Amino acid sequence: MQLNDKVVLVTGASRGIGAEIAVELGKLGAKVACTARASRGDFGATRERPELGRYSAVGKFPGTVEETAERVRGVGAEALAIRADMADEGDVIRMIDQTVERFGRIDILINNAALIKNGTSLFSDLALIDYEMATNFRGPLVAMRTAARYMRAQGEGRILNVSSSVALNYLPALMAYGYTKLALERLSLDVAEQLRPYNIACNVFRIDIGTQNSITTEVIPMEILDYYEPPITAAHGMTWMIGQPTTYTGQLESMRDLRKREKIMPVRAKKPFSVDSLPFADNHHLRWSW
Fold this sequence. Notes:
Blueprint: E1 7-11, H1 16-27, E2 31-36, H2 50-53, H3 65-74, E3 79-83, H4 89-103, E4 108-111, H5 126-154, E5 157-164, H6 175-195, E6 200-207, H7 214-219, H8 222-225, H9 231-242, E7 252-254, H10 255-262
Parallel strand pairs: 1-2, 1-4, 2-3, 4-5, 5-6, 6-7
Helix pairs in contact: 1-3, 1-9, 4-5, 5-6
């Protein structure tokens, strides 16, 4: 597959899966806009909305959009770094518009950005829950609405939304994260049908194999991380989906099932993964599909 001169925007591109998919698409010839909250200019800054500020700090995880953009340029592709908070509608619209201003179009939108804030429950602070919903669901919705207008004018486009098996499985303290991902999956199926007449595909990549990201590498012991796939594994599955014709739309692909069916994403984890390898596994509550 080649993506010469195609323009891709990847959210959550400062680290983890987002950074890896940005670099992989750059290797295929795409021009890549990398967006995330983490930027060299204001790393760790909070937003100016008091009701959300205490939950919107970027935090101490390594990686910035500028660093990912440099990696993309390192493989010979054009790259643009944009600081954007997916919970801020203005930021989301601006990141799409800036991408088009710089590259003249937007061909592929990858909604990868998401956050988990300190765990949520029925009695969590509603501002925390609202911020997580704004980031994981409303932000991608606004991004799709904005990008689709450009894609319609171009006559073609692709949208890929990244989900998680937590959408369907109970994991302690991940209430909000789970239902935001489930909502995103449901939204994607509607969007696929609405955009089908315009030659715009919309699909979901559900990560249901343990995969390393900025959160797991910070909070999970190294010996458990040996069971997790590196981010590049998921990036290769996402690349396969992006490479399909636009008639391939409305698909919700399980990472596990896609690996088995298409013989892609070879195992890179150091140890075979199982439910029992999860740090908080509870076989009574947690039923993974494999």
